[in-house]
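Support reply, case 0932

Customer input (verbatim):
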Amino acid sequence: MKPASALRTTLVFVAIGLVCLLFADIEITTINPWQELGRLGLGLIAPDFRALDYVAEALLRTVAFAFVGVALGAAGGFLLALAFDWYLVRAGCAFIRAIHELFWALIFLQFFGLHPLTGVLAIAIPFAGVFAKVYAEILDEADKSAEKALAGGTALLSRFVYARIPDAWVHLVSYTAYRLECGLRSSAILGFVGMPTLGFYLQSSFMQGQYGEVGALLIVFYVLIATLRLWVRPLLLPLYLIAAPFLLGSGLPIIWSNVSRFFTQDIIPSPLRHGDGWLAAWDWLLNILTHQALPGIWSTLVLTQIALVVTGALTLAAYPLVSRHFTGRLGGTFGHVLLVIARSTPEYLLAYILLQLWGPSMLPAIVALSIHNGGIIGHLIGRHSNALTLRADAPHGLNRYAYEVTPRVYGNFLAFLLYRWEIIMRETAILGILGIATLGFYVDAAMEDIRFDVAMVLILITALLNIGVDALARLIRRRLHLRTSPVEVAQ
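Our regenerated output:
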């Protein structure tokens, strides 16, 4: 990576973010937001565990949905990875992973209702697309010397199982474990659309002003994530996978006629459904594009670019908290805990809380997206900096930060930030469900009005937008010679 190219790229993104800030609504509209924020802080300091008689059940449901969804996603993703060289497979995986889990949940809710299958598939389908891409990368990057040493007549399956898989196994396991953590976050926020996970009870407690209960639920969730490596052991995994489907609950029965009607009637454009012809369907589509899609795309892009720049700034400020070159043992522990909390809090959950405190604007979304993603990238960059060896006469303080460490990790910083760009956009779109006028706002409004045909068009546009940003990010990484694999995120 050339420093001049990295600097130009950074300045371009900062300039775009500042321009977008001119069009952003970042006003705080609540009467006394700091009083409410203080009450929430008090709830975190003095959580009320006494009233949480449902917390064990909520935890079990959250873990069960995560395990079943991630297991199905990993199995499907592995099979797709074997055929990832095929264009249709790559395109299909890109499409399903570009749609957020909550959008999938909203779709399945329309015909499965509040059935466990809704939550499981909402996690499994996009995760399968992600797993397919990453597993394919891991298998492609595996050392092929053992495979080349095999006799010429060795069967293809034997070559794969005995020569390719053993070399890639550690990375496959590492990334799957990372996705389980992501699955727990996804499972928790499924509660906001009615599934009986932690998010459901957290939303209920918050709406009732029970901040002590909110604090208790958040702490329970943080502990669940922080102790993941302690209770997810290889020997216990079979037991978890066997038990998880039985802990999902029963939910409401599926009415299969609703499933049939959804695919044969509900998602068919209304002009075609009513026999008005293709010309009427074209006018219908233009109306959606003009009055919903374009305003939603604009707000989504504006919010994404601001959040991306703020995420970068927070990352550069946060990574010294976990770098041995700047902190002692006690300081490093505090920084590690702080970043664990930041990256463990789902953006949707944090945005929901801040919206209640500050009112409906882009500000809660910007802060939520930046804190979560800044925590993730800050942790990764801090870990990279720990591998650096400084000279004995290296400067200290600000000079060490500005001239010794940051320039040497800046390439990794840009690579991870560009990798998270598409993820930030996915989250930006879905935050519209909370009332921010991104694409998710119009999707949710269409769902509430039972205009599923309109909702599906908007979801398709959201997916295509995410695919486009992902392709642009990969192009920039190639131009800058930045190489960052999602596997590095899991390590």
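We compared this against your earlier run and they match. Two observations from our side: The two ends are 23 Å apart (CA to CA). Residues 33-266 form a domain with the MetI-like fold fold (CATH 1.10.3720.10). Please reopen the case if you see a mismatch on your end.
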